[in-house]
Q: What sequence folds into this?
């Protein structure tokens, strides 16, 4: 019973604090070879070259204005992109060099700037994680669309207001949007890890976790009145908004973010656990499967391993595992809509 809530909470909260695990455990940063790597990056950012490879992006004059290109290409925003490109290219190629040296000495891979040495594909930093994030996004869209079709084309609607009988339809629509938004920014963040994409990914994940927590309260307590819903949701959403503003405008505090995420995750855990014990929902097995799946997926984040062939790491597999779990989760939501509708129709008759 407790596992049900646990799985669901972890399923959501992993989205939130997984990037923290990656950032905290940076073996490469304390390695002696890392100093060599850092020297390489510093040299590269000054000269624009690693070995015989040189990058266009790194050509700046002494006052920070681009040396080449027409005047309209020297706008500040363009320059900022150029700086990012220069930094990521330098880090990437220095990492490849350091990793090659380490391999020749018989050492395994280490992390650089908090990340495993991934091989790029088409300029994408972590192509496999991006692909799985995109598939998660597609699965969320599919789930939401089939939920929409079920509500408005298959299930009977209330004759008075021509709305679905299911009282939580609007809340699940918003959930679909928030989840799709989170996976979109996850895909962007894994394509290119810079300050802005990192903040957008974190913020979207916190928003999803906070919203799903609110939704868990409303569904498990069967809160149906509008005033009661606002009373419950307002303080929670205010807290989540404040937390997101703090991360973006004040400090991206990974430790504190983890505490907030774990707290919201555990709270959801307890709620779904109690609800699973009380209700006689016909689709409990779907919850169970999501739980066991999430539990196994969580092991991937604990036993974090370097990317296989430079592409597939534990985090990528975790993103893959949430794809079928998302399918089941929406399947449960659809069952819930049918179940509630049938109960309400019996009451009407
Ligand atoms: Zn990710």
A:
């Amino acid at each position: 019973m407790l596992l049900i809530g646990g799985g669901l909470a972890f399923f959501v909260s992993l989205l939130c604090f997984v990037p923290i695990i990656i950032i905290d455990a940076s073996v490469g940063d304390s390695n002696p070879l890392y100093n060599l790597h850092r020297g390489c990056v510093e040299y590269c950012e000054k000269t624009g070259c690693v070995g015989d490879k040189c990058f266009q992006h790194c050509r700046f004059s002494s006052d920070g204005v681009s040396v080449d290109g027409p005047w309209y290409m020297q706008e500040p925003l363009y320059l900022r992109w150029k700086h990012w490109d220069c930094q990521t290219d330098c880090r990437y190629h220095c990492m490849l060099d350091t990793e090659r040296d380490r391999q020749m000495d018989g050492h395994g891979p280490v992390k650089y700037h908090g990340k495993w040495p991934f091989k790029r594909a088409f300029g994408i930093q972590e192509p496999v994680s991006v692909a799985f994030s995109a598939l998660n996004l597609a699965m969320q869209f599919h789930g939401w669309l089939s939920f929409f079709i079920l509500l408005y084309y298959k299930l009977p609607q209330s004759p008075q207001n021509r709305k679905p009988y299911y009282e939580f339809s609007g809340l699940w629509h918003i959930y679909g949007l928030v989840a799709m938004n989170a996976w979109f920014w996850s895909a962007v963040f894994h394509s290119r890890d810079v300050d802005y994409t990192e903040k957008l990914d974190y913020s979207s994940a916190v928003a999803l976790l906070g919203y799903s927590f609110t939704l868990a309260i409303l569904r498990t307590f069967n809160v149906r009145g509008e005033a009661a819903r606002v009373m419950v949701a307002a303080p929670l959403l205010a807290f989540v908004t404040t937390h997101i503003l703090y991360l973006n405008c004040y400090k991206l505090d990974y430790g504190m973010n983890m505490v907030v995420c774990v707290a919201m995750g555990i709270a959801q855990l307890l709620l779904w656990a109690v609800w699973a014990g009380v209700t006689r929902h016909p689709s409990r097995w779907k919850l169970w499967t999501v739980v066991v799946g999430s539990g196994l997926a969580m092991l991937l984040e604990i036993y974090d391993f370097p990317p296989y062939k430079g592409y597939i790491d534990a985090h990528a597999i975790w993103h893959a595992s949430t794809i079928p779990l998302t399918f089941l989760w929406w399947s449960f939501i659809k069952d819930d809509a049918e179940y509630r509708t049938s109960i309400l129709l019996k009451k009407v008759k």
